[in-house]
Specification:
With 379 residues, this protein is mostly helical. It folds into three domains: 60 residues; 110 residues, Tyrosine recombinase, N-terminal domain (DNA polymerase, domain 1, Orthogonal Bundle), CATH 1.10.150; 171 residues, Intergrase catalytic core (hpI Integrase, Chain A, Orthogonal Bundle). Helices cover 51% and strands 11% of the residues. The protein has 16 helices and eight strands. A three-stranded antiparallel β-sheet has the order 1-2-3, with helices on one face. Strands 4-5-8 form a three-stranded antiparallel β-sheet. A hairpin with a 2-residue loop joins strand 1 and strand 2. Helix 3 runs antiparallel to helix 4, helix 4 packs across helix 6 and helix 7 packs antiparallel against helix 8. The longest helix is centred in the middle third of the chain and has 20 residues. The radius of gyration is 27 Å and the shape is elongated.
């Protein structure tokens, strides 16, 4: 298989050229065509080539399987019920909401076999242009649609996955949907919460010093808090009455800062009889609703910007990077499965990046250049 550029008058296009064996007759054939005009990069041309090759070498469904075509709504319900056991409860609820609120109204008139690349491209464009949804949210919709079609192909409900050929929305890293506090704002909030709601100080300090998710904080037990090694072990997460593994599926350990160690040691003296480290004022397992009242009280008392509870995790990560912390270390602390997920914070440390480049010059060379620059230029 190969792809190559073809120069036309005033334009360049990618050509797809490959040979394949016919899936029914076994006859060797050659296929050659120009890639769509929106394909401008070689990697996209290669992806288009693979999709064409897969389509032409896949045997047609048996006659009885063609009858498996189903209305989009029927297949969507079958899909989420069949795959439910593979997902965590929070993921299932997210997929169900995307299907119910967005995808089902958009594709209700279609069957699973009649949805085209153009249909999905139009859905993407309409959501970006005619709604207040962020590009990242629209990409989540495309992800659900793509995953559903992957199974539709495997289960012989559809001949191909049209979502594969629709590019995700471009997400500007600077515009990503998260807020965070600076280190100064975090300290103002912690000082205020210590005065107005002192019982909640250890909880918010732990959130801001470890980056644990809300569900991980709710699931934290005293057995997970190792005061000897000064580490918090993240082994489980709690949400909507269900305890599961952390989001990545793996546990991790986060070191305690000296201030956090002292706060948790004192907190244990007062609450060692309860199994969980943190509970609500009424002694109930925590969730965002039970945390929001002390959270808002601390914000009002400190005068810091209003952010979401989940943004305490973003605040930890952002402050870590701005203090010249390693992205790869941060990946492990946050429990991200890939470093790409952590890269959203990389732009927050331009000074640290500049300082890092400085160390590449030998000290004697840097000193000589500064002397040569003189006081005016080196100021």
């Amino acid at each position: 298989m190969s792809v190559y550029k073809r120069e036309n008058k005033g334009s360049t296009s990618w050509m797809i050229d490959f040979t394949y064996n016919h899936p029914v007759t076994g006859e060797k054939k050659r296929h050659r065509e120009a890639a769509p005009k929106e394909v401008t990069l070689k990697r996209d041309a290669l992806a288009h080539e693979r999709a064409l090759h897969d389509k032409m070498t896949t045997p047609p469904p048996k006659p009885e399987e063609v009858k498996k075509d189903a209305p989009f709504a029927d297949f969507a319900g079958h899909w989420k019920d069949t795959r439910r056991g593979d997902w965590k409860p929070t993921a299932y609820r997210g997929y169900e909401q995307i299907l119910r609120v967005h995808l089902l109204p958009a594709f209700k008139a279609k069957t699973i076999r009649t949805i085209t690349v153009e249909d999905i491209q139009k859905y993407k464009s309409d959501k970006v242009a005619k709604s207040d949804l962020s590009p990242k949210t629209v990409n989540n919709h495309l992800g659900v649609l793509g995953a559903m079609f992957e199974d539709a192909v495997k289960w012989r409900y559809a001949p191909e996955n049209p979502a594969r050929q629709v590019k995700p929305c471009r997400v500007d890293r600077l515009d990503e949907d998260f807020g965070f506090w600076t280190a100064e704002e975090s300290e103002r909030f912690l000082k205020a919460i210590q005065e107005v709601r002192p019982r909640w100080y250890p909880f918010f300090l732990t959130a801001l010093r470890t980056g644990l998710r809300m569900g991980e904080l709710a699931a934290l037990r005293w057995a997970d808090v190792d005061l000897t090694s000064r580490k918090v072990h993240v082994r489980r997460s709690y949400s909507h009455g269900t305890e599961t593994t952390p989001k990545s599926g793996k546990g991790r350990s986060v070191p305690m800062s000296p201030v956090l160690y002292t706060a948790l040691a004192e907190h244990k003296l007062a609450y060692a009889t309860q199994e969980r480290v943190f509970l609500s004022d009424e002694g109930l397992i925590l969730d965002s609703n039970r945390v929001k009242h002390p959270f808002r009280r601390g914000i009002e008392a400190s005068g810091v910007r209003l952010i979401r509870i989940h943004d305490l995790r973003h605040s930890f990560a952002s402050q870590f990077v701005m203090a010249s912390g390693s992205i790869y270390v941060l990946q492990r602390l946050l429990g991200h499965s890939t470093v790409e997920m952590t890269q959203r914070y990389a732009h927050l440390s331009p000074e640290a990046q500049a300082d890092a480049v400085m160390v590449l010059d030998p000290p004697e060379d840097s000193a000589a250049l500064l002397r040569h620059a003189g006081p005016g230029e080196g100021a």
